[in-house]
From TrEMBL:
It comes from the Bacteria. It holds the Pfam family dUTPase. The lineage of its organism: Bacteria, Pseudomonadati, Bacteroidota, Flavobacteriia, Flavobacteriales. This is Deoxyuridine 5'-triphosphate nucleotidohydrolase. It comes from Robiginitalea aurantiaca. Belongs to the dUTPase family. Pathway: Pyrimidine metabolism; dUMP biosynthesis; dUMP from dCTP (dUTP route): step 2/2.
Length: 144
């Protein structure tokens, strides 16, 4: 699939790091480093603008290395970029560690996965089909 993209950053375009990768790394486009104190959040720009085909979305997800090593994650994970959005791709980062963390220009801050989706059409009914689980909620299928 081809996706139209404008790169106003000084970083390379996102790319798949391996032949089996689902996500592409997004890099920070910053004029100056951004310091995130504990529990602070910021929208970090990427300098990227894209045009997805209708029926597709881009999901912005945390990078596991940043989360595990530094406590930096994507706040609204996964963030959704709709096919009709034409603004700059921004990433809402939050520092959930106990230490300040500095985000530098060009740093890989998130990953983006492009996925196909369908829009649902509601069908109002009075009764739903019964299942073995029924209305069992959180943890109702056990802990094994």
């Amino acid at each position: 699939m081809k996706v139209r993209i404008i790169n106003k950053s000084s970083n390379e375009l996102p790319s798949y790091q391996t032949g089996a990768s689902a996500g592409m790394d997004l890099r920070a486009q910053l004029e100056a480093p951004v310091r995130l104190g504990p529990l602070e959040r910021a929208v970090i720009g990427t300098g990227l603008y894209m045009e997805l085909p209708v029926g597709y979305e881009a999901q912005v997800r945390p990078r596991s290395g940043l989360a595990a090593k530094m406590g930096i994650t994507v706040l609204n994970s996964p963030g959704t970029i709709d096919a009709d959005y034409r603004g700059e791709i921004g990433v809402i980062l939050v520092n959930v560690s106990n230490e300040p963390v500095t985000i530098a220009h060009g740093e890989r801050i998130a990953q983006m996965v492009i996925s196909r989706f369908e829009q649902a059409e509601w069908e109002a009914v009075e009764v739903l089909t019964d299942t073995e689980r029924g209305s069992g909620g959180f943890g109702s299928t056990g802990v094994d």
